[in-house]
Write the structure tokens for this entry.
Amino acid sequence: MTEKVIPVHMIPDLESEIIKVHGENYLQSNEAMFTFYKRTKGEFSPYFLSLKERKVILGARCPTCKLVRVPPFLVFCPECNFDPLELVEMPDTGIMNSTPPITYFGHSLFQHQVPFGRGRVMLDGAYTALPIHVYTTKGVLTPRVFKKGTRVKVIFRDKRIGKPTDIFAVPMEEIPEHKREIRGLQESDLDWESPAEPELPASTDEAKKAYESVLTQIGEMTSKVAHSERAQKNLAGWKRRIQVKTSGGSMGLSIEDGKLEVQAGESMTLTS
Amino acid sequence: MHDVFRRFRGDHAHERSEVIKTIGWSGDTFYERELGWTASDSYAEVVLAYMDEYPDDLKDDVSAKITEILGEQVQNNPFAQRYGEKVTAEMAMNSRYVVYPFKLLETCVYTEGAGAIIFAVADKARAICKNANNPVIRVTGGVGAANEHNVAGRDDRHKVMHRILSDHLAAKAAYQMAGVTDPLQQIQIVELHDAFIKQLQITMAEMGFVPLGRADDLINDGLMVPGGPVMVNPSGGLTYGGHFVGGSNMFSCWSARRELINKGLQRGLVHGTGSTIAQYGAVMIIERRP
């Protein structure tokens, strides 16, 4: 199905429920009030069109002071008597302007994407930093991957629609050397199937004890999920198999058809 | 010009992730909104940039201790959203990340609320306070307000990511108006817009209570611990009081005024911050004077 401007999972079911207020029953139903609209990128259209059609990042250069702003958020230079800026093609390489945050609790349209990183890349030759998503090809993003000064390459989505999400940054060290000079490198040009497992610290009695405690608690939670209509509804449509490794022990988690299962050890032989 | 005016603001918050999205809609609509911009990740950018610059500051155990202190102070504020809640430094340390490096218990809570402030010229204020049997609280620092660029750059013509210059400039302007030259010695109460505890620390540094890079001195040197020279967020702040966006700083004003009156102190500071990458800052100095 084509991606929608409101993700399908965000649309509530057509149903009603009884709520109790001060001992009285009231009927409450899901309703909607919505307006769809189109908006143009206006004078910033060349930038987004260039991402979409040419896989080229544009900057705005002042012919007088030579300052290059990326993204091209101005069309006149406030420093030079409002001289008109000229669009210039930028390199797709640069450095992280500062350490980027990682979002674990996103807003409603990004909850399916967490954890994700958003930072600012100072492209080579630029004076201002480009807001951009940051990705690692080595698994889940952690705070150690990107730091201030990390050299990055901007990668283009295979499917581009002229939005800031058409591009993202990946650490240069994760790009094979023979691909680093290629301009307009796409996500499908990279290897996303070889995540690197982080090294675990040495096992301790405390870690083992914590692991056992967590395993027991998750086991209890799986029983509750099995008896909770709401929990099963929330998990409906999910299909996940997750291997968890800690210095105290390992466990496998499986979510499928509204069921949550957990099993100790590294070889998942879950029923689902 | 009017002699008396009332400032009123309320906010109504429902489902959290929708609220966060709606606030996110107020940011840059072209280059950031569609990247999932939120207030949390935007302020986190500034805090992380500060930590890049000062890697030995903003230690987790210090921000956890501040969280614990604010949790003790909120027990003096029955209007707070989290009145009665007990949070220890250990709980704050072990709470999950919302947006790295911000942890759940070190983040303000969006809430519903309303507030009103009556400002009046001196003679009207005296008359109102006489009837209400309250001392007059004067705004001596006017309001220092400043804003920064919303795009990060290589120098201060654009946003310097590791600074909250808006807070610095706003405080500087307010101090000048109020004749404050040494805030740590001359200000006893601070009600600070603590969207995030680590941002609270940076803001205290930007306002001159500690040097930049030494915000942990707030705890390590006992500056804002109970009995210290400055009481920060006796209301529990927005972390515990609740953040009803657009009106929270009225709640801060109420608390600062209450503390000046109840504790017989002389001078308080009320601070507000907002927008992407902490662009906007406002500081007001209030004093209890005859």
